[in-house]
User: What shape does this take?
Amino acid sequence: MTGEQMVQLMEMNDAARFGAVSIDRLEWRERTDEVGWEATAWYGGDHNKLVLKTEGEYSDDNDRVRNEALWDHVVARWWSLQSGVRYDSGSGPSRTWAALGMQGLAPYWFDVDATFYVGDAGRTALRAEARYDLRLTQRLILQPQLELNLYGKNDPQRQLGSGLSDLRAGLRLRYEVRREFAPYIGVHFNALFGETADLAQAAGNHDTETQFVAGIRFWF
Assistant: This one.
């Protein structure tokens, strides 16, 4: 959910119930012919709502999907506490996690999302993401984005190592044909670290990769 959508949410009647679906990223990435996506759906009122999130990527030789079902409760202006469950699927065995995090607008209108996870077999994880919309014109918007993933222990079956596992950064330039619909182009960078990088190299994969992307963003 973007800062603009959160502002709209704060202006709702507390007794009313509303819902929305936001496809923040649906894109093709060159070199590996990979498809990536990030989407959010929510339903509820001013202070409490159900939030569904999905993020992933798919190519012929790899796929990774993260799905979350969260209860969102507003605890301060522009900030909400989120708790629920996360389910990872794709390459390797699936994993289920309990989730607890914060999402909101940091100073200078940075969208921030940070969540801590606890899984079975003593697994823990931390995911943090930040993005910012820089309006070049009324319709042309440049969005830098940064995501970090950390894990408490090795999970070689899913090619994940303990500590800082990966950093994902993006820079996307979109043009809002309408506020609800915007095609974009950009660049996506992914870097693996530590044991995660070693596992990727052992499997014949790169530990860093830069890809040009083209996609669309829309919500309703």
Summary: The chain has a mean pLDDT of 92. The longest helix spans residues 194-202.
